[in-house]
Amino acid sequence: MRNVGIMLIACSLAGGAATVQARELRENDRYMCSWGAGTAARAQELKLSGVSLYAARQKIQTYKFNKSWMHMMAMGITEQTYDSRSRARPEVIRQSFYQDCLRYKLARK
């Protein structure tokens, strides 16, 4: 019984620490992850519809980006998406990219 109590306390402390860490992310980090997730979802959508990587790159060239880093990041995300063998729906790609990005940002802190 005592061990169960200790385990519950340890789990609650770990859960509390995770929520505190989630709050420590800057708004810019969340924006970057959200933007990247949207880019990955669009790339997956193009891939699944049969658009070639070359055509997807050309499409990216026509976009106007708000920040200087976005163009090269979009190219990289698109290439990685096309290199992947995944046939998952774009919504799944968006969610997994966002979650992985947040985990990465938290791990760097």
From TrEMBL:
Protein's UniProt name: Valyl-tRNA synthetase
Superkingdom of this protein's organism: Bacteria
